[in-house]
Amino acid sequence: MRKLIFSTSVVATVVLSSSAFAGKDDHLIVQEAAKNVVNVQQITKLKDETGVTLTGQITKHIKSDHYEFKDTTGVISLEIDDDLWRAVGLKVGDHVRAVGEVDTHRYKPTDIEVVKIEKIQH
C-alpha cells in the first residue's frame, strides 16, 4: 500500500511540475505577439516570455536551429525548429515575419523562440 501511495504522489508531482514549466501555449504567444509588433532594439526592454512579432531578414545559420535575424535596428538570434523551417521552405537571405517568445538568459544574449514564421515579399 505504501508503494502505491508513494508511486501516485511521485506521478502527481511530475505531472504538476512539468505543466508548471511548460510556459505559454503557442496560441497564447501568437495572440500576445499580435499586440507586440516590435523591432530588435525594443526586445531588450521586454520581459522573458513576452510574445512578439518581428519583421526582417534571416542573415546567417548559426548552428542547429539557431539563425541570425536582422532588421533596421539590430541583430538577434532566432530559434526556429527544423519542422517550421522546412514547412515554410526557408533559406538564409529570406525576408520573414517571425512570431515568437522573448527568451532571456543569465549567461548568453536574449533570443527569440519562434512559434510561427512566414516568408514576406521585400
TrEMBL record:
It comes from the Bacteria. Keywords: Signal. Pfam families: BOF. Residues 1-22 form the signal peptide. The keyword Signal applies. The keyword Ribosomal protein does not apply. Gene3D superfamilies: Bacterial OB-fold. NCBIfam families: stress_OB_fold. PANTHER family: PROTEIN YGIW. This is Uncharacterized protein.
